[in-house]
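Hi support team,

I've been running sequence recovery on a batch of backbones for a student project. Most finish fine, but this one hangs at about 90% for roughly twenty minutes before it completes. I'm not sure whether the input is malformed or the queue is just slow. I've pasted the structure tokens below so you can try to reproduce it. Let me know if you need the job ID as well.

Thanks,
M.K.
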């Protein structure tokens, strides 16, 4: 059972890390090379794989002439990737310490380095996805250590954060992002993020139905 759990956790960690990185900062050559050179990762970006611009340009030119422009349009100019904008009646961003997401981060000692990321508030989609990435890492460590109760408690935090925060607004943002994307990379990234958070919530919902007991979930999936 543990091998399957750790494989599942590794996949969750990697995808949350990837989509949070893409949505928090411009793509650099290192990240682009990782996407292009890893067949498993590239499979998540089918339109980018076929994109004619990718075939005929250097990574550096692709980034400077297309990808950075698209990132700026999507995340800095034309769209607002912040939960508070979507959920407050006045559609104002909450950038101060009263932001409920920031309060939640503080309670788990999760620090947001706003100056290092291209974000203005803690409820940016990239930061919320990074929070999930960090939670998944902690859950994985607990599983490796055989601390299944602690791992289940962390999974419950993940479930609640997805349900009460990310899924309350991110699907709308991601659908808009997919529609507005000017490059195949960000079109695919929006698609990947949307499909993944929905499937991850389904996985966590199954855990919740089994009282966040991995053993019960394993028995159920094995038909026992």
């Amino acid at each position: 059972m543990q091998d399957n759990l750790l494989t599942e956790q590794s996949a969750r960690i990697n995808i949350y890390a990837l989509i949070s990185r893409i949505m928090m900062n411009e793509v650099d050559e290192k990240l682009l090379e990782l996407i292009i050179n890893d067949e498993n990762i590239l499979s998540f970006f089918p339109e980018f794989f076929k994109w004619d611009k990718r075939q005929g340009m250097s990574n550096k030119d692709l980034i400077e002439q297309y990808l950075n422009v698209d990132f700026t349009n999507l995340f800095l100019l034309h769209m607002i990737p912040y939960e508070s904008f979507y959920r407050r009646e006045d559609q104002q961003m909450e950038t101060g310490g009263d932001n409920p997401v920031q309060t939640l981060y503080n309670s788990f000692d999760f620090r947001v380095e706003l100056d290092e990321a291209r974000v203005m508030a803690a409820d940016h989609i990239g930061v919320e996805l990074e929070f999930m990435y960090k939670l998944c890492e902690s859950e994985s460590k607990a599983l490796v250590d055989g601390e299944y109760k602690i791992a289940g408690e962390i999974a419950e935090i993940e479930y609640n954060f997805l349900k009460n925060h990310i899924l309350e607004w991110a699907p709308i943002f991601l659908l808009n992002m997919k529609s507005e994307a000017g490059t195949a990379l960000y079109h695919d990234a929006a698609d990947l993020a949307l499909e993944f958070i929905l499937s991850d919530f389904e996985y966590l919902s199954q855990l919740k139905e089994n009282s966040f007991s991995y053993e019960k979930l394993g028995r159920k999936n094995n038909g026992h």
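--
Follow-up from support: It reproduced on our side and the slowdown came from queue contention, not your input. The chain has one domain: 2-221. No action needed from you.
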